[in-house]
Specification:
This protein is about 65% helix and about 0% strand. With about 150 residues, the protein is mostly helical. The chain starts with 16 loop residues before the first helix and ends in an 11-residue tail after the last helix.
């Protein structure tokens, strides 16, 4: 964490340069080029096959990213349920199952000290992911996200 800035609500979004600024844009531009080429030369079947392959590559690269994020969310939910069962007072432990996935995922940024009060507030007021993050006073960074 020494080389990383302290996380907070404004800077906690993670950008993966290889995905967001290279692979994704290149695949999108490739599909645009393939479509443009196929439209100009519509009589050649292989041009349309290039469009299909380009679209498949685009879908594939985004599915790989989405699958990784889904696995990460499952691990976060598991970690947070374990953390909540250790940190919450007895009267709130029985309500852990009432938390929605987005609430659990957002609560990971909350420090242990304010976790009980924010969990109670999230349950009672049905706070959204964004609302939970806005209510965090002592931010707990997550530096190992995908």
């Amino acid at each position: 964490m020494a080389d990383q800035a302290q996380q907070n609500l404004d800077n906690h979004t993670r950008w993966d340069p290889w995905f967001h600024f290279f692979a994704g844009p290149v695949i999108i531009l490739n599909l645009i080029y393939a479509l443009q080429h196929a439209i100009r030369h519509a009589t050649i079947l292989r041009n349309w096959w290039f469009v299909v392959v380009s679209a498949a590559a685009l879908v594939g690269i985004f599915l790989v990213r989405i699958y990784a994020l889904r696995v990460q969310d499952r691990v976060i939910r598991l970690e947070e349920r374990l953390r909540l069962s250790n940190v919450l007072p007895q009267e709130l432990r029985g309500r852990i199952g009432e938390l929605e996935d987005g609430q659990l995922i957002s609560l990971r940024f909350c420090s242990d000290d304010e976790l009980p009060s924010l969990t109670k507030k999230a349950l009672e007021e049905k706070l959204s992911r964004a609302d939970i993050k806005k209510n965090i006073k002592s931010w707990r960074g997550d530096y190992s996200r995908v």
